[in-house]
Amino acid sequence: MRGIHTLLRLLAAVFVAHLLCSTGTAKVTAGKIKKFLDTDNHTNNWAVLVCTSRFWFNYRHIANTLSMYRTVKRMGIPDSHIILMLADDVACNPRNCFPATVFDHPQKTTDLYGDNVEVDYRGYEVTVENFIRLLTGRVTTNTPRNKRLLTDDKSNIFIYMTGHGGEDFLKFQDSEEINSYDIADAMQQMWEKQRYREILFVIDTCQANTMFSKFYAPNVLSIGSSEKGENSYSHYHDRDIGVSVIDRFTYYNLKFFESVDMSSKHTMADLISTYNISLIHSTPGVRTDLFARELEKTYLTDFFGAVQEIELTAEPYPIGKNSVS
Ligand SMILES: *[C@@H]1O[C@H](CO)[C@@H](O)[C@H](O)[C@H]1NC(C)=O
Ligand SMILES: *[C@@H]1O[C@H](CO)[C@@H](O)[C@H](O)[C@H]1NC(C)=O
Questions:
Q1: Which key words are in the record (predicted)?
Q2: Structure pTM?
């Protein structure tokens, strides 16, 4: 059984390496195969942050996403491992009376757009197709590095989405929509292509929990802001800016993250225990049946921290030893 398993893994590794090779992005090397064979430990964290809304009055969705972006950066994920997709640019919208800024609080203490925001997909680049291609790695050969999710089977990926949605769909730019089956299938493809170890999927939109109801790929933990039939609600309305500046569910998640840093021992269970329906105004949902670990033992830093404990070995990897036997 173990032999067959190893053989399958090796074949998969060779296949994927071949795939990478044929698209010109990598060469088949012993190192690459070793990488695909060693699956137990996780060596990197990635974040995909997606705001699917256009137009000024959806300011809060951009603020949600930029706040999340700041948080994952603060907790240690470098920009090279964050894919930021923003469908609209409210910072430079003529209606913005604070040009080139985005705030998530009426006190306006932190300009979310301030320094070092690297948007990877912007404006009309934020499409369902580009999102699915990004996840599944089916990008064209001339796609720049910052538009690729260069993960492997040791990567934990945090996927955050916000915008306008409904039962089993999320609108992209008011012109198209992604449905819950699209994302579920994309994740299964990611799993088959060994593109992740674990995924934390978080979505803030109306009827958000329906968006992960169709998932079936393993090792996915999902959290949504509202049940089927429920809206998701905005939080602060800013009278100067003239629109709401953040959504409640995202706001209370961020509030918890404020108390967390890279050395934190807070777990996913701690985060979820803070959800308070009377503050969020909708019913957050958590789906754990696809996730192998207990939430009490899943640290926030497993997804958000910088992972630096990488094991290096001096001796060459014994390729032939435990392969086909
Ligand atoms: C990660 O690797 C270390 C050292 O090889 C090992 O002791 C540990 O059990 C591994 N972790 C997991 C989750 O498999
Ligand atoms: C939830 O929020 C309400 C309103 O602020 C508060 O009265 C209540 O104590 C909170 N519940 C919990 C469990 O913290």
A1: GPI-anchor biosynthesis, Signal
A2: 0.80
